[in-house]
Predict the structure.
Amino acid sequence: MEEEMRITILIEGVLLLALSLAGIAEGLRLVIYKDPYTLYDPMGPGLYIIAIGIGLMTLSVVHLVLHYRKPPAMEMVPVDRKMKIRMMSTVVVCTIYVLLINLIGYLLATILFFFLEFRVQGIRSWPLVIVLSLVLSAFYYLIFVQYCSVVFPRGIIFR
Amino acid sequence: MLNLFYCFLGCFFGTLVGVLPGLGPASTLSILLPITMYLNPTGSIIMLAGLCYGSQYGGSTTSILVNIPGEAASVATTFDGFPMTKQGRAGEALWIAAVGSFIAGTLGVFAFSIIGPGIAKYAFNFGPPEYFGILFLSLTTLVSLSGASIIKGLGAGLAGILIASIGLDPVTGITRFSLGITAMMRGLDLIPLTIGIFGIGEILVSAEAGIVKIYEGKLGKMMPRGKELKKGLWASLRATVLGFPLGLLPGLSPVVSSFLAYDVEKKISKYPEEFGKGVIEGVAAPEAANNATSQAGFLPLMIFGIPTNPPMAIILAALMLYGLQPGPVFFVQNSEFVWTVIGSMYIGNVMLLILNLPLVGLWARISTIPYKYLAPIILAICVVGAYTPRNTMFDVWVALGAGVMGYIMRKNNWPPAPFLVGFILGPMVEISLRQSLSMGGPMIFFTRFITVAFLVSAVILVIVSLKFFKRIPQEILEDKSDS
């Protein structure tokens, strides 16, 4: 358990360090670059980011030093494998949904999303899943696309 | 009579859209602006104003019931609203949110119509150093929102500030962190991030935890009684007093005032360790503050033409479209228009109370729907909510990424709220800081009384918060961080 916590802290610290270094690097680039159109800006667009980056770097180092040696006691709630798969499947279905909106348009992608997600969430009745997917998609389409005039991608297939 | 109808329509649709996660006041106003152009100028502005404060009312509903803020100003409401729902007190939370909003809205309009131009004169004297001072003071909320680990809270806050700097530099227009990608040049929008971290993140955690319903048991009574009622009403009044003056200052959106009000309530409370676990003041204060701030925003808009937040900017655009130029003489030249709009605000707040209180039960019943039905419905709304502010699929990807990040943060005891506070306040702090330095170098912060007062207050608040946190048992802080 403690080893797991250590690895987590290490990953957290490294990610924060990477973010802070990216901030400092971008800040330095902007300090070196002089915009010919800016008349007077003593701080410039880079110094603020550098300051925040240094602050974040300090915090990530403190986090690593303080917590890596002696990880804080955390209550680990055991997760059912089935539920973990459900959570990951939800992420996958959402990713497919967003990809499909671009590909086949909002309406068809939404029907497919509801169909897959209701199954992932554990609704076993096929007729219920089909009816819910069709009715909800039609409802969303009417409200957002027809009434609110939200312009979604039509999908490259149907262009 | 027709204006009353427009007022009702504005309030009704505002509440309805505010209930939908992601569709906050700004996106609602921008979507419906073309429709209101078919009305007369007075009717149009009355409807837009109704939409504006109606969505503020409605935004609290999803925050309380499903832990998804309808708009950014309702983020603070989730801290105690959702725990109240889990305890079976959703009815009480929704009731106090509606009544608190009504108190703040009505008192806000009253103050607006009474003190009007007089108070705005003082707000007009606020320069960038004063704004920097007050924003710096707002940043102290990072400490109190940190939960078990202040290092994690501050880390999340600073990460939020860094992420907020993606896109065009607000002063010079130079691109930062854009990596040559056009979508990145526009920066990340607040709404997709909020939807992702709070909405999608929460659904992923719930999916993993195998939650069957949002909460088991009865909905509980609607109207709080006795001490609970008294505590909620007093918190609403205090937050109104805090939120209204903040609404007069450009740049301080209802988001800031809701966080500040929550923080103030926590600091003055006799049981601060209970905040985040479902206390009524934690719902009443942010709701009242964001409504008071939202209402107060009409004052600088009409007197100086200064939009204090995005919804006000859209109302300003609507005024311009009708050829109405807000400014110091606006009250004199268009007095009939101005007082009709102010009158409609009084009536609108009563309408919203009537609309919200009987409907409280209806909204609360949403939480009895099994989660397996609710989760896909919310996820699909999250996608629409993330897409609509800027009509770009890039924002939907951002929401999805933020959702995964929100899930990881929750699982590893990283508080998500400081990240969002950093993201909201970071750019405002930068602008006021750079403008102040351009005005008179670093010494300007020490030569202006109001700025010094704000900065000293911020330092005192941080010290008090740190001492206060030491007194709270670690396990309680870990619980807070989780929520």
